[in-house]
Amino acid sequence: MKAEVEERPHHTPILRKAAAGVVLVLAAALAISLVVAFVKAIFATVLTVAVVIAILWALKTIFW
Prior knowledge:
Elements: H1 14-63
C-alpha cells in the first residue's frame, strides 16, 4: 500500500487552457453585447421622447 500521495502535474493541459480561453472570450463578448444593447435601449428611449416633444412643440406652434 502506498502511503505517499501522488503529486498532480504542475502544468495545465493545453486543451484545458484553450477551453478556458474560449469560455473567457465568449463571456466577454456576451458582456459587451449586453452593454451595447443597454446603451441602444437608453438611446432609443431618449430619442423617442425627443421626437414626441418635437411633435408636440410643432403642433403647438402651428395651431395655437
